Amino acid sequence: MSASKLDRASSVRETLSRYRNEFISLLSRYVAGGKGLLQPHDLLDHVEKILQEDEGMLKLKEDPFVKELEYAQEAIVLPPFVSIALRPRPGVWEYVRVNAFELSVDSLSVAEYLQFKEELVDGKYNDKYMLELDLEPFNATFPKPTRSSSIGNGVQFLNRHLSSFMFRNKESLDPLLAFLRTHKYDGQAMMINDRIHHISELQSSLARAEGILSKIQPNTPYSDFEYE
Fold first, then answer.
1. What is the DSSP letter of 2?
2. Most CB within 10 Å of its CB: which of 10, 92, 154, 157?
3. 175-217 pLDDT tens trace
4. Where do the Sucrose synthase EPBD domain residues begin and end (predicted)?
């Protein structure tokens, strides 16, 4: 188990023990409705209600655990347990399970969290018939955004990554040639022809084409200079 997960569990455990009665009251609200899936707004709504109903609870407003709930993406409730999926920053997920009555805290792996989620649906976990898909090979070389500014700007993020990768060495640009060759219309190459085999040839051809086009009027038919 990673150090960050252990730190997260230790931090939650410490803050729960500091305000034991207050958090038992809060967590009891989460489990009062029985098993289910709580959305982020559900978790925070209960916090707001308990703060409004009891002034003695206001001390929780700045508590680290309540702050952690702002990163929560969902919570699985299987009384007396509440398992919370936290995303403290893009690309980073952590999972903790809290016993609402004993305030014991455990860190969960992804597999353990999904097992807990399966129990919510099926009532039990049966690993004998568990369907498991290993998607890691697809992610091994795929870039992962780690900055909030990248969220919603996936195309820009990938363009920057690919540009950096391609221009580190010219051999990395070979896939670009293959990509340009695929563009055809009615069997005729639209971007480059089969005479260009290397990036250096493409560069010299582009320079030559630019020189030719600079001397041609904008309204000149393509057929007039097609074979130049």
1. -
2. 157
3. 778 888 888 888 888 888 888 888 788 888 888 888 888 888 8
4. 153-227
Contacts of 59 (CB under 8 A, 6+ apart): 19, 22
Q: Are strands 72-78 and 81-89 parallel, antiparallel or unpaired?
A: antiparallel
**Other beta carbons less than 10 A from residue 35's beta carbon:** 14
DSSP per-residue codes, 23-68: HHHHHHHHHHT-SEEE-HHHHHHHHHHHHHH-GGGGGGTT-HHHHH
Token code pair at residue 110: 């992804």
Q: Which of 224, 200, 199 is nearest to 213 (CA)?
A: 224
Residue ranges in the chain assigned as alpha helix (H): 3-18, 20-32, 40-53, 64-68, 110-122, 136-139, 154-166, 174-181, 199-214
CA dihedral in degrees (159, 164, 166, 171; nearest 10)?
-170
**Is pTM, for the whole model, over 0.85?**
no
For the chain, which residues make up each domain, given as ranges? Answer: 3-123, 148-218
What pairs with residue 79 in β-bridges? none
Task: Find out whether 12 and 68 touch, Cβ atoms under 8 Å.
Answer: yes
Q: What is the pLDDT of residue 166?
A: 66
